[in-house]
Amino acid sequence: MRALVFVGLGLFDEKDVSLRGLEEMKEADAVFAELYTSLMPGLSIQKLEELTAKKVRVISRRTLEEEGGQPILDAAKKGKAIFLVPGDPLIATTHVDLRIRAEKQGIKTHVIHGASIVSAVMGLSGLQNYKYGRSVTIPFPHEGCTPETPYEVIMENRKLGLHTLCFLDIRAEEEKYMTVEGGLQTLLAVEERRRHNVITADRLVVGVARAGSEHPIVKADYVQNAVKYDFGSPPHTLIFPGKLHFMEVEALITLAKAPPEIRRMSK
Fold first, then answer.
1. Cα 237 from Cα 211, distance rounded (Å)
2. How many domains does the chain have?
């Protein structure tokens, strides 16, 4: 059978894979995984191999983005190939491209979804999912240049009263993961240049660390305090709230230990 099955690994460790995903792995002829789009702190490839009795081949960003995932496609032409991806497998657009390539080559594709950071941070913070605007990634500064797109996205969402989910840059090959502090410092540097009062000291922000683990950290506070807060080890995520419903305010105070005075911000 010519088939390529995309399987979401979830958020934290090998226990997050669904039973359906494990069953597909056990029946596979080849299993591949990428670990560069997100950090899964508790994941053990060895334990995953023991659970499924299958060898897992970890592939690089280069294999997917520059070679078009050719080793995966070659395996799928010979039998059933599994592609393991942190979170939900098709959040990353490079993986959508791989699925399209497979279908065009006559390879049947199937998706087994996993827990995603997108839904996890919404549940952990209590901010209602239908009130989010465009999401954005805050990248590491490159050669002294700080991209302004995240700042502009937050600004536009704020004008519409919408929340902004900010993914924080990951360079897995270098074991370099942006933190809440790093993300805020990057935005503050842009604010220093643009001066549109988008990222100010008294702006409310929510930081989430290690979503999916037994003890995630969710903390809502003003930028001046959040930038100094110890969120612990990565992965980290940032949310900039827009207009707040009174239930969202209570959720932030109760679940994220936000300052009680934010009640004045509710609509």
1. 9
2. 2
Helix (H) or strand (E) holding 209: strand 204-209
User: To which H or E segment does residue 56 belong?
Assistant: strand 56-59
Contacts of 138 (CB under 8 A, 6+ apart): 150, 166, 167, 168, 169, 178, 183, 186, 187, 238
- How far apart are alpha carbons 262 and 90 in whole angstroms? 36
CB 199 within 8 A of CB 187: yes
Domain housing 94: 3-112
248/191 same-domain check: yes
pTM, full prediction: 0.92
Which of 65, 97, 112 marks a domain boundary? 112
CATH number of the domain enclosing 50: 3.40.1010.10
Residue 113 forms beta bridges with which residues?
A: none
Domain boundary among 62, 97, 112: 112
Looking at residue 197, the DSSP 8-state letter turns out to be S
Token pair belonging to 194: 């643009």
pLDDT, tens digit only, all 267 positions of the chain: 799 999 999 999 999 999 999 999 999 999 999 999 999 999 999 999 999 999 999 999 999 989 999 999 999 999 999 999 999 999 877 799 999 999 999 999 999 999 999 999 999 999 999 999 999 999 998 877 888 999 999 999 999 999 999 999 999 889 999 999 999 999 999 999 999 999 999 999 999 999 999 999 999 999 999 999 999 999 999 999 999 999 999 999 999 999 999 998 876
Residue 144 and residue 217: Cα distance in Å, rounded?
31
